[in-house]
Amino acid sequence: MLTFYNEQHSQHQGRDAVVRGQPVPCAEAPARVDAVLAELGRRGLGRIVTPHGVPLMSLERIHTPRYLHFLRNAWSDWVALDPANAGQDAVPSVWPVRTLRSDVEPDNFRAKLGLYSMDSGTPLTAGTWSAAKTGADCAVNAAHALRLGERGAFVLSRPPGHHAGADFYGGYCFLNNAALAAQHMLDDGARKVAILDLDYHHGNGTQSIFYQRDDVLVISLHADPRFAYPYYLGHADERGAGAGLGYNLNLPLPAGTTATAWMAALETACIRLGSFGADALVVSLGVDTFAGDPSSRFALHSADYLRVGERLAWLGLPTAFIFEGGHAVKELGVNVINVLEGFETAL
Ligand SMILES: [Zn+2]
Q1: Where is the Histone deacetylase domain (predicted)?
Q2: Which domains does the chain have, with CATH numbers?
């Protein structure tokens, strides 16, 4: 399996997140990817590749030009407001909720931050664009490798992507790597692509991007949004709209979900994937379903991830694994690489 590694990932490092009014260290940190890279080296699971840069036009296949323009320039705009801003992250504080307009981009930078974001827990930093763009490069390169005949590819990158929509960031995500990979394969001649999101949190960005389309099936297994982020999307009755009706499948699961119950949901997902007839699969690989993960109320254990990879291999599809969430840094490498090894050894 080829791994496309984002060497720029550590350029993006949020200082703090605010939890119950107190600043705490940002959980989405470079140590996450470092842990997976170290385990990848220990297990010797294929070649590590540096991606070629892709043109902005590739990103515009998923994200709006207006949003990309904002994201590229956000840091310099932030520092232009006040040179002292260079020492602190840009964090939004006001949002266009219901009844307010989001079609007119305000001049005020603070208002722009709110227009293009969904929460205050996703700090924008000096290196955010460079890290996110290189991650997107990795995703498009991985998709291209599958089209050239690779059976599996792994995108080892951060920041993650599945909460990012066509024109907004949030949930630590800025560019939707899974969506970019899927779109690239379609643009390169694939007829249908499926995205399977295994992260503990619902992939609201991915769902919203493809909600009205029937060429990308989006399936997500996740914690019920009634108690888990992103709270406002991810319910079972969201099945797609227009041409996309029937091409979005949410499998929300309760707190305390065991590996047995989670695997049963994975089986439901695999059966739907089988009937869709995809040419390729993109897996949003978050392992925050792990029992020891600070954000998880599920109970998967490290050995379970081998079985996940094995089950996915039996789908018989060229598969791109995109690294998403997981914050139990000590076990993160083992859990992620177990999925990849399960996939490789099942073949
Ligand atoms: Zn997550």
Answers
A1: 28-340
A2: 2-345 (3.40.800.20)
